[in-house]
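Sanity check. The docking grid for adenosine-5'-diphosphate depends on where the pocket ends up, so I'm generating a full predicted complex first rather than guessing from homology. Inputs follow.
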Amino acid sequence: MTDLSVYKGDITELSVGAIVNAANSALAGGSGVDGAIHRAGGPAIVADCKAVIARRGPCEPGDAVVTGAGELPAGIVIHTVGPIWTSDAADEHDKTLAKCYGAALDLALKHRAKEVAFPNISTGAYGFPKPRAAVVAINAILDWLENNAAHDLNEIVFVCFDDENHELYESLLGW
Ligand code: ADP
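Predicted complex below; grid placement will be based on this.
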C-alpha cells in the first residue's frame, strides 16, 4: 500500500527519496518552486540540468528527467514540465498535466525512490486553475498506482504551498 499525504510547506525541506520540480523546458531554473529548488540545491543541480539538456535537448511539456539533488536533503530531483494553461485547449492541458505525474512516478520507480513529493505543478506561473489541476493530479496518481501494481513506493506527498491548494487537496482526499 502507498500512503497519500498532504503537506503544507516548502518542498525543498523534505528528506524524501525524490522531490519533483515544476520546471521549464530549458531546465534553467526560474521563479516559484523551480527557483526555490535551484537556490536550495546549489550549483550541482544547475550543472546536472545543463548536462541533461546537452544530452537530450529541451524537455517537452509532459516529460520528466532526473538530476541529483545537490545540497537538498532529498535523494534525487525529478524535473517535469507542466502545461501553460490556456482555456481554448483545456482537455489537452489536462492530458499533459496527467502525463507529468505519470512520467515522474515512472522515473521514481526506476531510481528506486521510496517516497515522492510533488508540488502543485502548473498552478503558479503557468496559470492552471487550481481546482482543476488538483483533480487531474490526484486522478493521474491513482491511475498510475493502479497500473503499476509491482511498484514499491511507500508514500506520495502532495506538497501544497498556498492555502487554496492545501484546502483543495485536504477536501478532495477526504481529510
Ligand atoms: P508552474 O510554472 O508549473 O506554475 P510555479 O512554481 O510557479 O510552477 O508554481 C507551482 C506551484 O508551486 C504553486 O502552487 C506554488 O504555490 C508552489 N510553490 C512555490 N514555491 C514552492 C516551494 N518552495 N515548495 C512547494 N511548492 C511551491
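Relevant for the grid: The pocket of adenosine-5'-diphosphate is lined by residues 10-12, 22, 31-34, 36, 82, 119-126, 159, 161-162, 165 (CB under 6 Å).
Also worth noting: The chain is about 40% helix and 20% strand.
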